[in-house]
Amino acid sequence: xxxxxxxxxxxxxxxxxxxxxxxxxxxxxxxxxxxxxxxxxxxxxxxxxxxxxxxxxxxxxxxxxxxxxxxxxxxxxxxxxxxxxxxxxxxxxxxxxxxxxxxxxxxxxxxxxxxxxxxxxxxxxxxxxxxxxxxxxxxxxxxxxxxxxxxxxxxxxxxxxxxxxxxxxxxxxxxxxxxxxxxxxxxxxxxxxxxxxxxxxxxxxxxxxxxxxxxxxxxxxxxxxxxxxxxxxxxxxxxxxxxxxxxxxxxxxxxxxxxxxxxxxxxxxxxxxxx
Length: 275
Ligand SMILES: C[S@@+](CC[C@H](N)C(=O)[O-])C[C@H]1O[C@@H](n2cnc3c(N)ncnc32)[C@H](O)[C@@H]1O
Description:
single chain; alpha/beta; Rossmann fold; 10 helices; 7 strands; 19% strand; binds S-adenosylmethionine
């Protein structure tokens, strides 16, 4: 059962297909004849941008022959990047109807709709045949999914015999309090943030063999601060162009989020598991 708060959060998220196209229009003068690369500065909704995609793709062994399932694919920025750079095919599985529609629009505009497709659905019940994918991929999204066992079981089921699951996510440190968790739930619809050891145990229970974990917290801190600056800029843009202030709460939340990461109560983890 999906919490409606997650869909509502992404319905009002500052990054959207329309906002990405506005940014491209402002820098390029038009949104005609787009290449995927024209969007890369704006369409990556995770920490570390294209370099983080490269690191995850290398860890997962994505190649031109791979069929990749991007779980929680959002607007498909990483999917378009991987399809362009590596030549792989990607299927995005995404819950939010507006994000599915936005991703399809951006895929079409960049001529990638043959190689990057989007299916609307919930990652705890991936609507695909057993063993269909070579790689299951996800970035900064599993924190929205409380039923980790169903989600990881679903990932394991759709992977072929030599498949790999590779994902990054926010993870809890021992000092994360229940008030902090409530703040994260309210601020970014983070329904379930677990400690790295919990992810490793859940991966093993789901049937994954080897699991590698990497602490990426120190890489994420400067990125998080740059994000805060970007959201402050989007807030200013909205105030200037519309006179309204729709992103005020989001910016206030983000300021507290940065403090939690600075204190070590929250961190980033990369997990790579073999089927
Ligand atoms: C932070 S965005 C990540 C987007 C993408 N990974 C990127 O880097 O650009 C998280 C996405 O997860 C989606 N999501 C959350 N819960 C989901 C679920 N249970 N099933 C499928 N998608 C989900 C949200 O709608 C949102 O688009």
